[in-house]
Amino acid sequence: MATMDTHDPWSLRESYLYDRRVIAEIQRAAREGIYDIRGFGAKRRLPHFDDLLLLGASISRYPLEGYRERCDTDVTLGTRFAKKPLELKIPVTIAGMSFGALSAPAKEALGRGASEVGTSTTTGDGGMTPEEREHSKMLVYQVLPSRYGMNPDDLRKADAIEIVVGQGAKPGGGGMLLGHKISDRVAEMRSLPRGIDQRSASRHPDWTGPDDLEIKIGELREITDWEKPVFVKIGATRTYYDVQLAVKAGADAIVLDGMQGGTAATQDVFIEHVGIPTLPAVRIASDALQELGMHRQVQLIVSGGIRTGADVAKALALGADAVSIGTAALIAMGDNSPELEEEYAKIGSAAGFYDDWQAGRDPAGISTQDDELAARFDPLLGGRRIANYLRVLTLEAQTLARACGKSHVHNLEPEDLVALTVEAAAMARVPLAGTSWIPGVDNQG
Amino acid sequence: MRAEVTEAAETTAVEVVDLASTPLRELNQRLHDLAGGADGPRRWRILNPNGAHAVACGIDAEIEIEIQGHVGYYCAGMNKLATVRVHGNAGPGLAENITSGTVMVDGNASQSAGATGRGGLLVVHGDAAARCGISMKGVDIVVRGSVGHLSGFIAQTGRLVVCGDAGEALGDSIYEARIYVRGAVSELGADCVEKELRDEHRAELADLLLQAGIDDLDPSDFRRYGSARRLYNFHVDNAY
Ligand SMILES: Cc1cc2nc3c(=O)[nH]c(=O)nc-3n(C[C@H](O)[C@H](O)[C@H](O)COP(=O)(O)O)c2cc1C
Predict the structure, then answer these.
(1) B9: Cβ–Cβ under 8 A, 6 or more apart, which residues?
(2) What is the CATH number of the domain that holds A360?
(3) pLDDT of residue A222
(4) Does ligand 1 have an atom closer than 6 angstroms to the CB of A111?
(5) Residue A166 CB less than 6 A away from ligand 1
(6) What's the domain count of chain A?
(7) Quick one: average pLDDT of A50-69?
(8) What is the pLDDT of residues B93-109, one digit of tens each?
(9) Which of A34, A151, A218 is nearest residue B236 as measured by Cβ atoms?
């Protein structure tokens, strides 16, 4: 028991179980009577790529020369069935983020940036805007349970199709676009009245289960004359089965989003407590593909907490063909910028902590449908920043790959990795650094 | 096998495609090639569909298609402009996401008929199974028989007319779509309520029935259902 001794704050003991965040949340819940909905991804600490290290070359392996020797980064997505696969120059793509969640100029900037460096961007719940089509050389069109804004003309205009089964932030959950982000334009695209909360279903309206999915994929291929790659996006949960079922259903590529994956608006309890982290998910998925003899035949695109070139390199080493980014792309465009400190303070937040992407009051003009706020965002500058950031991710991944002696980033392999923690070693199935121990794998000496 | 049959009354040729001998891919490609007003047959007859999936999906042309037999999933999916008539039964997802044109089925339709449809007209002369008109966004659907559970789920706009009965959870979480039912409703879904049938609704119904070729029913015998709009803005007291 500590008495309040203002001279000695160290005498106060914070409860581990009821720390100040827990207490604040209980108080908030009691006050508001509604669960907390927010943007961003999981904020708790989770095993991640930071818990892995790469083994650079030495005597037993030799490295490639830092800036000179070739280390390719190109990826082709959709080689299995599509007549026109997507040819990306870099293994990093922009994840699906809806117009509605993001402003039109922000979507435009994503397209500009991605196109400048030869990669793709993705629509989202709410459909395709002309701006993003115009500014994206390669645009992936999402087919979501809500089918908001879904129409055959846009489907035919797309370069690839992504059937969204789930998202890492909320596997098994539907979506919600709160009324204050429903401008006239968003309402029109979604065939709904302005200003009301829009629920997005959690289940597709016209198929359930893997056998139906196969037929659905067949229909989309027929409609688009077998030209476009069809991706299937899943939130990481029962990843082994989901990956194998998606392959069986005829997917050209699998987009796998770990539980850290960002969101525009999801219940906090969902973000923090459902799904498995990206780290084990990648390994399970690539093992599932290998077992079917489909690794590299059906491409694996991984997302959920990709922030640096190291994350990219490690995800590829664990078997991904490419990665995609959401949260980091928003930050690159200016979200959470210290320049906006005062503005964040006005809405009860702070630079570096802002996660109210659901609220539509984003001072950076990114996660908003307010014309005035959106007008603050310069799509040219935003596009430039996206291109810069994507270049850095690529350069970093290349640097690491060269150090491991690889002439293509895809030549990175699990054998190039060790783990810093027992958890990461078990999840990524690579040895704990300095040992040959992979927890859960037999016959380790 | 393709045969050109000249009709006696008109000189319009009917292009006949037999799916027993022609791959579905070839048929759909030929239908797609008519997009944008390209030259080609305007009337088609498809034989031996034998439950094939995705028959005549993704059409974007003002043509008429008669399908002689039963079709599988997603027949006339994402239809634009075309008139498609199935002389048989249809599997799940009939005319899903239809944007314009007309799709008619003489027999029954399985689950999710007209799902997410954005425009045009879907007519089912038999019964439709569960989730008929699920998430509809502007399509008009007329079912001569009954519909299964969760029909009109999250229906956004458009009109669903059921001449028979409706299963459980009708119009669950409905937005602005209007539902008309002539027979019994097992149970209304969340936020779906019965509303007054006024003259304007009788007129609208009469027109829809006429378009569907149904002339033996009185619009006054229908009841109207729509949204109570209590779920429009999330509030804890409305949570389920
Ligand atoms: C603002 C925002 C909007 C999103 N909208 C969608 C969407 O419409 N459809 C979808 O499949 N995923 C959506 N996502 C999830 C992303 O596609 C992606 O899975 C996730 O952001 C990846 O994790 P990361 O944010 O850690 O990079 C959204 C994410 C954000 C941040």
Answers:
(1) none
(2) 3.20.20.70
(3) 98
(4) no
(5) no
(6) 1
(7) 92
(8) 999 999 999 999 999 99
(9) A34
Mutation choice for A interface testing from B28, B132, B137 by most A CBs within 10 A: B137
pLDDT band at B40 (very low <50, low <70, confident <90, very high): very high
At A367-399, the pLDDT tens digits run: 999 999 999 999 999 999 999 999 999 999 999
Q: Is residue A8 part of a domain?
A: no
In which region does residue A109 sit, left (phi positive, over 0), alpha (psi from -120 to 50) or beta (all else)?
A: alpha
The reply to whether residue A212 touches residue B92, judged by beta carbons under 8 angstroms, is: yes
Can you tell me the ipTM of this complex?
0.94
Q: How many C-beta atoms lie closer than 10 Å to residue B3's C-beta?
A: 12
User: B2-230 — its CATH code?
Assistant: 2.160.20.60
Residue A28: inside a domain: no
pLDDT one-digit tens code per residue, A235-264: 999 999 999 999 999 999 999 999 999 999
How far apart are the CA of A303 and the centre of ligand 1, in A? 9
Residue nearest to atom 2 of ligand 1 (CA): A264
- Closest partner residue to B116 (CB to CB) among A147, A178, A196 is A147
Is A261 close to ligand 1, i.e. is its CB under 6 Å away?
yes
DSSP string, A122-149: E--TT---HHHHHH-SSEEEEE-TT-TT
Give the residue numbers spanning the domain of A141: 40-428
| pLDDT score at A30 | 95
Q: Which atom number of ligand 1 is nearest to the Cα of residue A125?
A: 8
Distance from CA of A179 to the nearest CA of B (A): 7
**Where exactly are the structural domains of chain B?**
2-230
DSSP states of A204-215: -SS--HHHHHHH
Q: How far apart are CA B66 and CA B76, in angstroms?
A: 11
Of A395 and B238, the one with more pLDDT: A395
Q: What's the CA gap between B124 and A203, in Å, rounded?
A: 24
